[in-house]
Amino acid sequence: MQNSGTDIEKLVRLLGGWPPHFDDVEKAHGESLLRYLKRDGLVDEPVFGQVVRYAVHRAAFDRLSVLIVDEGF
After folding, report:
1. Which of 17, 25, 52, 54 is the most buried (most CB within 10 A)?
2. Which residue pairs, CB below 8 angstroms and at least 24 apart, start in 35-43?
3. Residue among 37, 64, 72, 71 nearest 51 (CA)
4. What is the distance between the alpha carbons of residues 66 and 5, in angstroms, rounded to a whole number?
């Protein structure tokens, strides 16, 4: 039996793959959400588009949060 990481990677490939500008942070956020959606049987191409947008915004929020903390807010 394959592990879930491999299953998620296969699913991502079937859905067209991550955008080329994604780094490990965006991929991690996207894969996390995909695990839940896959478990519930809610993954298709339009949903994958939402996952991609979520991953971009979540990674940007993480980066901003670090800057905000560094500034002492």
Report:
1. 52
2. 35/4, 35/8, 38/7, 38/8, 38/11, 43/11, 43/15
3. 37
4. 27
